[in-house]
Amino acid sequence: MKTDVFIGGGGIGGLTLALKLARRGFDVVLAERMAVRSPTYKGELLQPKSMQIFDGLDVYDAICDRSNEIKVLDMLELSSTLKVKDQSFMDYSVLPGKYNAAYMIHHEELKTIIRKSACEYDNFHYLKGTACKGYTENTAILQKGAEKFEVEAKFFFGAEGRSSVTRKAMEIEVKQTTYNHHFLTVTFPRAENFTDGKIISTYNRFLGLFPLPDNQVRSVYLIPPGDYKTLKEKPISHFHKLYTDLAPAVDGYVQRLADWKKIQLMIPVMYHAESYVKGNKAIIGDAAHAVHPMAGEGMNMAIQDADVLGELAADMLAEEKTDTANLAWYEKVRYRRADHVIQLSHLAALAYSFPYRPVSYLRQRTFERMEEDPILHFKQMLNVSGLGLWKENVRDRFIQGGFMPVRAKELTEGTKELKYYKPEDDYPWKVEGLI
Ligand SMILES: Cc1cc2nc3c(=O)[nH]c(=O)nc-3n(C[C@H](O)[C@H](O)[C@H](O)COP(=O)(O)OP(=O)(O)OC[C@H]3O[C@@H](n4cnc5c(N)ncnc54)[C@H](O)[C@@H]3O)c2cc1C
């Protein structure tokens, strides 16, 4: 078998990359080792930049139709008697333009939308139940059941997630950071009018609630490492109470979980490969980096990697400039952005990692200040959205810490838009030229 581009892994990253390339008319072979839908929970929150990318791929409407739009994340800090002490908001509508909301969608359903769209192109070949086992110099070695075969390609892109075969073939090691907490995660029914995201915390507890379509809500509940096994030995009513204590809004709904079977353990990790490209190979998404799920960024990073690498590879093929040195553009654009998001997610994780009252007080104060100061609020939402990057400076930190007064002045839409990435930031080789 011979193709232009081989992609290992049919998760969100691999499928988005395939759709981009297929639409540009290039031959793509994608091997996905799973033959059926994955039963594990994965990322489900789409940030504004991902929606902008999906708009460009003509799947925006299909995704909106099957999502719950989230304009606001409601951050509640509770006292030890579980009374609301403080409430602040992360509001996507501070972002000017069309992409000013996040969207919650069932992970497997998003994959189906992208895969179906890619399958409309005859030049896309989806090999399900087929694992990538490794590489020779110009072929990927694949296995389906007992059958082994090879695919010859110009480029080989690894989108196989955390245990990437392509990353191993590129001899790139990753050093994993773990956290002092794990999460329980599960989806269950919700009230129809419960549509905004909620993050509810006390000094030693954390519950995130992210409404999905079909009146369902995805939840994450922080637990100490090792507690999953002992928790599962308790009656399910114990789990219900952990949730209803913090979120009365789920009372009457969480109880529909009748046993522990659907409640999964999620172990957060962080790593960043030292490079994304080697010769005719590149890695994207979780193969290249993993972030703590607190900021809801993992899947979005995979989509954004796919967008840049897909555009680059398509331009290289279209201009017949297939010198692999050009692949460095992908790393040049994405590495710094990904690094910032990894740090952002890490900081958000640390804010909930220490079960002490002074930490809870500091967190509450930081969120209050972020909401009151229009520049801080915009920076936070911009950086989370992926639409642009505007790093916090020393003055911002002083304001956040309460050592300087908040700024009253609102930013104009024009000033805000100046901070958005422009096409030449996303695809600089189109201006500077390929070799
Ligand atoms: C268990 C888990 C839970 C998560 N939960 C959350 C969450 O709650 N919130 C959040 O924001 N993020 C979460 N994430 C992160 C987010 O889901 C990922 O960042 C995102 O899915 C990355 O997409 P990807 O396409 O890079 O990789 P993946 O989604 O991991 O997709 C990789 C695909 O490659 C396939 N594959 C693997 N090896 C091979 C091979 N050798 N050959 C062929 N195919 C192969 C896999 O079957 C899979 O379909 C979670 C991740 C994991 C692993």
UniProtKB/TrEMBL annotation:
GO terms for molecular function: FAD binding; oxidoreductase activity. Residues 2-344 form the FAD-binding domain. Keywords: Oxidoreductase. InterPro entries: FAD-bd (IPR002938), FAD/NAD-bd_sf (IPR036188), PheA/TfdB_FAD_monoxygenase (IPR050631). Pfam families: FAD_binding_3. The keyword Signal does not apply. Signal peptide: none annotated. This is FAD-dependent oxidoreductase. It comes from Planococcus plakortidis.
